[in-house]
Amino acid sequence: MKRILLIFVLTFILQSSYSQSQEAAAYEVDEFNLWNKQIGDTAYVFADQAYLRDAPSLNGKIIDSLVHGTPVYIKSEAYNPSTIRGFKAPWQKISYLYDNKYKEGFIWLGLLDLGHNKNNKSLNFIHGFLRFEKGTSYSEPTYLLEIKCMDNNNLIARNYYPVSLNGQTYTDSKILPNMGLSNLESIHRIGFLGEACGIASTHYYFSWNGQNFETMFQKSSVGDAGVYYYEETILFPSEHNLGANLIIKDIEEGEVIDEYVSEPKYKKTRKREKYYWDGKHAAQVIEMK
């Protein structure tokens, strides 16, 4: 009898200790993450299928599953960073509609969209990370940025772009018109932006013809404390008079000549890249010198 009582007491102490450690961990707030979901925000499930749990960790019991395109509502701050699918993201408490009832649970943010936009046809374009791929001797480590076109929970199309991240702290996205390009409905631009010196801001472009996505190109900019900058600018046919199928990327790079003068001057170099639009793809034009 004493042995049984001792086992019960030890079990209670261990469970209590585990519960307290879990509770403490639950309030390790992750102030900076690319999802940047705030209490009250609406987000969308990005993963094809996402599990909801009763606690903010993989140890939590699965209580429901939701499919991509399902709207959810953020109910807490982000906490408990976990590495899943090869990349790190925190957890947040959400509410969601399930069987015509609103419920609450915890979700790992890597399963939610980084951002979303709707077009004039009420189609929802959501983007997020598919997974992280480690670098090899032949390739750099990359995140697979995926974009999906959703009609409610129905997937219409998807495509992905390998992206490199190094210290970016927030994202943005925008649906552009066709910018004068033929056989195109819109252009989707997704950016990963850096606020600190030396952290590049890079935008990735997808074309959308109403049925499918195609990857196009990227543009980047970076500056370093007023002594160096690098800037790429994209010009589409609606922004220049150089041809209906021509896309221009202008590149300017500047390095300060004397950083100690009150009004520093830069040594600037400029070059231009050209891309040819064939109605479906944007291919870089290689010019012989």
From TrEMBL:
Keywords: Signal. Residues 1-21 form the signal peptide. It comes from the Bacteria. This is SH3 domain-containing protein. It comes from Sphingobacterium bovistauri.
